[in-house]
Amino acid sequence: MMLKGKVALVTGSTSGIGLGIARGLAAAGADVALNGFGEAGEIEALRRAIEAEHGVRVILAQADISDAAACAAMVDTAARQLGALDILVNNAGIQATYPLEEFPVERWDQVLAVNLSGAFYAMRAAMPAMRSRGWGRVVNIASAHGLVASTNKAAYVAAKHGLLGLTKVAALEYANTGVTVNAVCPGWVLTPLVEQQIARRAEETGAGIEAATRELLAEKQPMLRFSTREHIAAAVLYLCSAGAETVTGTHLSVDGGWTAQ
């Protein structure tokens, strides 16, 4: 319960990696503000389940992450209902894949708005109060694509590279305030969306799920094994721990060797 008494906000946390992070923070004792899409009844059931399992307070703080005012209101909701905001995890993200010359301008704008500007909006709203209290942790969920590129992902790669730059700037500005700012860069993580991608690949190629999985991993990762949501949550928990008090302005890759190549 190393985070007992702390309050965390995780964007994009009603499913996938973000939900894994929210659960990990709750298991460590933090009260949690969830944020994300989904059917209202399912999200409420999820909220209640996390509360019951870990004995913490869990609220929902919805927002359009691409809107600065909405992000500020989200941060205010978390701080007002839970008493403060100590930990901010910027996880919300979207993807779009097109060749550069065919990339729709509106899709470029959407990906940059959610993946990069949204993190800035939330940090801008949350970090002054962290500084005033002398303690805070900001963890930006970037990607292996924040360090290397792939074809047809101009907006996503640009946004994630930008997110790492934003992480470094904020870390420098808050270096002596008790607030640290870091990033986690996942490679392939087994989520329902990735499982669907594997199923489509298996259907298109006629190969089985196991072969399609191995083929997908082998394209990028030397370690032919998925990371899990729990692995990413563990990385976030480390960056929030006492052992990481002097870790700031850097990234932690959880990518099976993807960016070692």
Report on this structure:
With 261 residues, the chain is of the alpha/beta class. It is 49% helix and 13% strand. β1 (7-10), α1 and β2 form a beta-alpha-beta unit. The longest helix has 29 residues, at 105-133. 45% of the residues are buried. The mean pLDDT is 96.
Using the alpha-carbon principal axes, give the shape: globular
Cα-based radius of gyration, to the nearest Å: 18 Å
Physical arrangement of strands within the biggest beta sheet: 3-2-1-4-5-6-7
Q: What's the total count of β strands?
A: 7
As a percent range, the share of strand residues is 5-15%
Give the proportion of residues in helices: 40-55%
Find the structural class using helix and strand composition.
Answer: alpha/beta
Measured between the Cα atoms of the first and last residue, the distance is 37 Å
SSE series:
EHEHEHEHEHEHHHE
Output the number of helix runs: 8
Mean pLDDT: 96
Question: Nutshell version of this structure?
Answer:
With 261 residues, this protein is of the alpha/beta class. The chain has eight helices and seven strands. The protein has helices at residues 16-27, 40-54, 68-82, 105-133, 154-173, 192-205, 209-218, 229-240, and strands at residues 7-10, 31-34, 58-60, 87-90, 136-141, 179-186, 251-254.
Salient structural properties:
7 strands; 261 residues; 8 helices; alpha/beta
Blueprint (SSEs and pairs):
Layout lengths: L6 E4 L5 H12 L3 E4 L5 H15 L3 E3 L7 H15 L4 E4 L14 H29 L2 E6 L12 H20 L5 E8 L5 H14 L3 H10 L10 H12 L10 E4 L7
Helix pairs in contact: 1-8, 3-4, 4-5, 6-7
